[in-house]
Structure formats: structure tokens, C-alpha cells
Amino acid sequence: MKKICLCFQIHQPFRLKRYRFFNINSDHYYYDDYANESYIRRISDISYLPANRVLLDAINEHKGKLKVAFVISGTTLDQFELYAPDVLKSFKALADTGCVEFISGTDAQSLASLINREEFEAQVVAHKGKIMRHFGKPVSKVFCNSNMIYSNTIGAMVEEMGFQGILTEGAKHILGWKSPNYLYCSATNPKLKLLLRNYKLSDDIRFNFSNQSWDEYPLTADKFVHWLGLLDPKEEVVNISLDYTTFGEKQTVAGGIFEFLYHLLKLAVKKKFAFATAEELLALQPIAPISIHYPISWTDEERDLTAWQGNEMQVEAFNKLYNLAERVKQTPNAKLKTDWKYLQAGDHFRFMGTKLYSTGRRTIYNPYESPYDAFINYMNVLSDFSLQLQKVDTPIGKVDVDVLKKELTEKDKQLKQTRLQLDKLRTTIAKAMKDDKVFDQEEEPAKKTATKKKTATAKRTAEENKSTTAKKKTGGK
Predict the structure, then answer these.
(1) Parallel, antiparallel, or unpaired: how do β-strands 183-186 and 193-197 relate?
(2) Domain CATH for 37
(3) What is the DSSP string of 388-406?
(4) pTM
(5) Residue 231 vs residue 409, higher pLDDT
């Protein structure tokens, strides 16, 4: 029987306030509390709460036949705790049914997996802790990276952290002729199983539900379940993953999106489709290995990293942020560590993306008027953050002590060598001076003898000259 894994992704960053150049070194609070609270409250009322009610009713109605999975970022849980505790309560009610799986992710929906393994692992651990604290259950053995970013390198890190599977994008340029509706494994780490998103079926709900120019419009529950039935019977799984704001924000209540969700679940159960969590799919046998050398994601048509690293502004901001990692690691300041985490949210870099504007298809909420405004605002914040790190007294870590010891040892060696060379030079000079003195003592008698001979010769010559002159005067007489 074909298994359907329905996974909803939920992430909200802490949005930054307008932070100007003159705020640097004077204002150390970076967040727009009003925007964050108003957006979380609005999206909770129009999306999260009504969607949770639909799922809870459907789960209770079908008594264990319906299962769903969630990937909820840590920054989202933090904002629920601050601004929307009723949303946390509704997710707790879903968790208590035993039919909901919470998939592990990164705490800040960051891009740390691309550059800093230590930070990446720390965020995964922090995210696990928050899931346990809020919902009282451990995370799945399946991992889902920020924006489904994956490569062989990331897969190796994930497998070493103890995960047995990873949910990522069934990108066409990776699969080629192969179908995403099977379980695969990593070519470099065969123990790690790959669950691939069926982006066509997922994006038909995500983008095309209200698209009147779409050739399949309107999308109904009957039509969608019919498509599921047309899939090759040999295909074992269908991973449908989409952001939860699809329900109520991207697709509105007036368009009938919640009725679609409810009837889709009801009809799929009626047609004997089996719903499964991502972890349950790990029991299947992988049909083939897949090697992914360059990172893929679920974003845009390219399914790559250009949404976050597609221009020089994004790359500069990204590198400047992670160049501060070692200093953050050593600071004892808890506020700076929290700021560090919130500043890593991938949304900040995506707000700088120029492709959102060139294509005319802005699929995310962007509080800035242009990518350049987003870049300048972020870099101003980062400048102040860097200055605050410099002001904090950071303890010297073990690594720094070892480095200092090594430098001192090396300097001692150099000093000893210099002293030896100086001693040798002094010995050489002393010996040379001694040799010169002996030479002078041996040479002195010879010099005196030579001088006497010269003096006697000169005296004889003078006497002979005098005698010759006298003879000439007397005519030779």
C-alpha cells in the first residue's frame, strides 16, 4: 500500500527594526517587537490556529489512520512563547493525539551547515531540547535541514549526529529520470536514508490552488486524490511537504483552502491510502543510492542556494557573520549569544536577494523596499554586534593558552640559538684579536732590524755623495 507522508514546515524569524548608521554603538537592541508580535498574531489567527483545528478534528475522526509531521524552527517556538501561547497549546493538543511527529531541524533555520559544523550541531541540539520542553516528546530520527538544504557533506554530518534519515528536495536535476516516490540512501553514507519531496504535488497546493491561469484550475480534493491513484503502484511513498502558511495566508480562507485540506484528508483515508510519519518510512528498503555533490534546496526553480547566496551583498553579509563565530563562542554574554542565533536566520540573507525582484514573483514576506535596504540594515546591525563582542571581557580558553605556550616555547628556542650564535661570535672575535697581538709581537724585532739597515744604508749613501762632491771641487786631487 502506498504511504503518504504529509509534512508541514513552520518558520518565522525575528525581524530586525530599521537600524541606521547612527544607531551603531549606541543602540544594542535590534528587533522590531511591534512587527514581530503583530505578524505572529495575524498569521496565527488566519493560518496556524484554524489549520490546527482542521487537523485535530480529522485525526480524532479517523482514530489513528491519519498521521502528520511538523518541522517547527526554534525561533518560531520562541515567538509563540512570547506572543502566541495559545498556538503552542494547540500544537500540544495535536502532539497528545500520538499521531503527530516533530522532525528535528536547526534552531534558527540557519545556513550554518554550509560553513560551521560546530554551530550547526549546537543548533540541532538546541532545537531538540525545545521540542522536548514544549511538547514532551523526542524528535524524529529523521532530520530536515533549513529549507531542505542537502549535500553529501551535510548528509555525513547528519548521520554522525545519530539520525537515520533526512527529508530533502526531489530536485529534477538530481533525480533525472528517477521518481521521488521511493526511499533512497546516500551514496557516500548508505546508512542514511533519503526521503525526497514530491515537489510537483506539493507545489500544486502551495502555489496553484488559487491560480486561475493554471490549466488544472480549480484544484479539488477529488482531483488531487485521483492524481495519487494514478501514480505507479510500484512507487512506495509520496512525500508532500509545504509551508504551513499555505493554509490561510498564501491560500486564503475565502478561497476554500481549509475545506480542501479537510476533504483531502478524509477522502485519502476513505480511498485506503496509508498515512505515515517520516520515521515510519525508514522501515522501507532503499532502492538506490543518490550522490549530491553540490547543495540543493526546495527554493525557487533552480533548487539551489542562490536565494541566499546569489549576489555579492548576500555573500559579504554571510561571510562577515560567520567570521564572528569564534569570538561569539568565547563570550560569556548570554544576550550576545541569543543575538548571534537570531542573526543567523536565513531570511535575513534572502531579503537581500535580487532574484525576488527580477522575477516579479515574491514568494516571501519582505519588510524592506529593496535588497539594498535589507543589506545596509543588516550590516549596520552586524557592525554594532561586532563592536559589542569587542567590548566584552572574554575569558582565555584552553586553546588560546596552548597557543601562547607554544609561542613562548618557540621564542625561548630562538633566544637560546641567538645566545649560542653570540657566544660563538665573541669567541671568534677574541681569538682573532689574540692572533693579531701575537703577530705584532713577532713582527716588531724584524721591523727594528729592517729600520736599522735602512738607516745605515742611507748614511753610507750620504757619505759617498759627500766625498764625490768634494773631489769635484778640488779637481780630482
Answers:
(1) antiparallel
(2) 3.20.110.20
(3) HHHHS-PPPPHHHHHHHHH
(4) 0.81
(5) 231
**325 within 8 A of 111, measured Cβ to Cβ:** no
* CB half-sphere exposure, 361, CA atoms < 13 A: 6
CA 268, 222, 298, 363 dihedral sign is negative
Place of cell 502532539: 95
Quick one: which of 172, 165, 167, 238 has its CA closest to 205? 238
Return d(Cα 149, Cα 169) in angstroms, integer. 8
457 found inside a domain: no
**Residue 401 scores a pLDDT above 70:** no
Average pLDDT over residues 263-272: 95
Do 170 and 199 contact (CB within 8 A), yes or no? Answer: yes
Residue 249 is part of which domain span? 3-302
Residue 335, in any domain of the structure: no
Q: Which helix (H) or strand (E) holds 309?
A: helix 306-309
Q: Is residue 82 part of a domain?
A: yes
Place of cell 543602540: 27
Helix or strand holding residue 104 (H, E):
none
Question: How many domains does the chain divide into?
Answer: 1
